[in-house]
Amino acid sequence: MSIATIFEIVLAAVVLGLGIWTTAVRETYSATVGFVAYGLLVALIWVRLDAVDVALTEAAIGGGLGGVLLLGAAARLRNAELMVTETPGKVTRVSAAALSVLIATALAGAVLLLPDSVSTLAPTVVAHAWATGLTNPVTNVLMAFRAMDTMLEKVVLLLAIVGVWSLAPDSAWGGHPGPRHQADPNGVLAFLARLLPPIGIVVGIYIFWTGANHPGGAFQGGAILASMWLLAIMAGLTDTPPVRSRRLRFILVAGPGLFLIVGLGGLCFGAAFLAYPPALAKPLILGIEIAMILTIATTLGLLLAGAPERSAKR
Amino acid sequence: MSAVTVFGLCAAAAVGLGLYGLITNPQPLRKIIAFNLLGSGVFLLFGVVGRRGAAASIGNDPVPQALVITGVVVAFSATALAIALVLRLFQKAGSTTLSDDAPPGADPNLPGG
Fold this sequence. Notes:
Largest interface: A-B, 98 and 84 residues
Largest sheet of chain B: none
Distance between the termini of chain B: 58 Å
Shape of chain A: globular
Structural class of chain A: mainly alpha
Oligomer: heterodimer
CATH class of chain B: Mainly Alpha
């Protein structure tokens, strides 16, 4: 047994242990912390599975931003969750356990009994890479071969932000999302919020730019930009913009909007919806991605900030 | 047993744990976390099957990878919406219980907004 295999077994065991802890621990806050650690270690599993693009996404969005979201909610609900006393009856728990074990066993059986013949789309993706001029196969799939999924996913992000904003009370309609954060101007948080964003912005743009040929891309870069923005907001250095701002709304629809326009252009002048002419494929994809990274960073940041809570006038 | 199989079993267990937590935990926030655990197990299964599709000097089939990246972002936005709903429920009702009985301290005549 090689060292790599031992590492993988230990990694799987730790991830499994964190999963059990997340499910079983009594206090919600501990479960949240367990889940954040779980998300970061799952990113390592993705690296071991040779899917570095997914690992970056999982670490940035699943572990990082998702962690901030869950920890923030757990902190605000701390008192409420303590009041909850009702627990499901024994019958419910036993049947839930039986159902879960059944499904987990079926999935484990499926993993163990996978057929030897393997179907893969990797050679097809490589064979058609010339059509876009990009060499990262995952970016090719995301931006060209399955561009429809990516465009619809942008629409899902937009719908989510509309859903969150519609939860605003009447008094704060169109106002600033989330509470106004205050931090000690000489404290560590304010210091880091001044020190890190210049570095983080460069790293985010680099990860976006290198995504054409190496692991990376607009999602991962956008998540890093969003976290830098949130850091400045949490340190009280800047405020969330009022959601009635037209400029903000323009940025939010820029990504899916440009994607849709290019797609319709493909329908009018090219072969099909979202078909890029090969000569223009790379500039078109880059243009869409630049609009997308702005949209993604803004949307992720605003999703974390939550529903508007303060009127825009104050 | 290869490393891929180990991660596959881990993913299957994560799905089972997530499902159990989703059914038995009474608090909404715990249900959201359990649902994410379930989803992460499903994503990992994609990765395990995609790893078998390694070909043409790519270590993992790029199509399931792209699907998982899309899935992670969609799961995040759904989680954010669910948490906003829970926080608003807490703000309005003073509790986050999902049971049918009116929670203590809730005023049914509270004006909207």
